[in-house]
Amino acid sequence: MSISIQEADFDLAAELDTLRRQSKETGALVSFTGLVRDFSDGEEVESIYLEHYPGMCEKALEKIITEAQQRWSLLGVRVIHRIGQLQPGEQIVLVATASQHRADAFAACEFIIDHLKTSAPFWKREQTTHGTHWLDTRESDQQRMQRWFPEGENQ
Amino acid sequence: MLRFPRLGGNKWLDPHIPLIVFAGQNPCSSWLIASDMKITLLYFGRPREQLATSGETAELPADVTTLAGLLAWLRTRGDNWASALADDRVRCAVNQELSNLSAVIRDGDEIAIFSPISGG
């Protein structure tokens, strides 16, 4: 598992290449890249600002990845989350997973990004043509996360 | 840190009244409301911006033992605090673990108060 929280951009191809080379058993690589949209709730987004809780963020991501490793058979996981000022079109987050067969890599990648959205302490402030505002957790993100926890199962 | 005795209910004494004493140096310390609990407070996201502070250390009154109590106490600091820390606007972590408002606070805890998480 490898986690980075950084201001700098990342090279998707280089990251996947590194992950691919970690094990000769790897038969599947899946990645999700989150980008800054230029529209949010009908308003034009000029930029976003991302802040995080140093220490807790790394711990939360480790916990999420560890849980993914317990649920699925994974050969490697790479997570990068950017912080600071970002412009529309820029990359925000990368989740990449490697496994022998695609089902594990697909499921684990989706699980990690769904979980990250609701429990890793990052905050986004949008600068739109109407001013700045902090975003709340989206209801749809909460629902996506809940799908991984059948009723009664503790998160 | 200065602590102010309290007269019943939730009404704080005017801090300008010279009734100020230091806990631990006063033989009547049981009469004071200050506890021995000292915590680190961190603010992130919307409350950090609205309160224009990213953190502080605080000594808690003896009757503040949970996150809900801590928020209620912080809200007495003024209108800006009351609005920044309204129940439906903040989430908390105790020692870097997301926690609900009934969580108990212990001496030395690192408590973070923030707006709902919105990364990714």
SSE layout and pairings?
The complex is a heterodimer of chains A (155) and B (120).
Chain A: E1 2-6, H1 12-20, E2 28-35, E3 39-40, E4 43-52, H2 56-71, E5 76-82, E6 84-86, E7 91-99, H3 102-119, E8 122-128, E9 131-134, H4 139-146
Helix pairs in contact in A: 2-3, 3-4
Chain B: E1 34-44, H1 45-51, E2 55-61, H2 67-75, H3 79-84, E3 91-94, E4 97-99, E5 110-114
What key phrases describe this protein's structure?
A: alpha+beta, 5-stranded antiparallel sheet, 4-stranded mixed sheet, B: 120 residues, alpha+beta, Ubiquitin-like (UB roll), 2 domains, 3 helices, disordered N terminus
Between the first and last Cα atoms of chain A, what is the distance in angstroms? 21 Å
If helices are DSSP runs of H or I spanning 4 or more residues, what is the number of helices of chain A?
Answer: 4
Q: How many individual β-strands of chain B?
A: 5
Low-pLDDT runs of 5+ residues of chain B are 1-31
Strand-residue proportion of chain B: 25-35%
Number of helices of chain B: 3
Radius of gyration of chain B: 15 Å
For the biggest sheet of chain A, the summary is: 5 strands, antiparallel
Quaternary status of these chains?
A: heterodimer
Report the structural category of chain A.
Answer: alpha+beta
Helical fraction of chain A equals 25-40%
Main sheet overview of chain B: 5 strands, mixed
**Strand tally of chain A:** 9
Helix content of chain B: 10-25%
Percentage of β-strand residues of chain A: 35-45%
Instruction: Specify which chain pair forms the largest interface.
Output: A-B, 29 and 18 residues
Instruction: Report the span from N to C terminus of chain B.
Output: 40 Å
Query: Structural class given helices, strands, pairing of chain B?
Result: alpha+beta
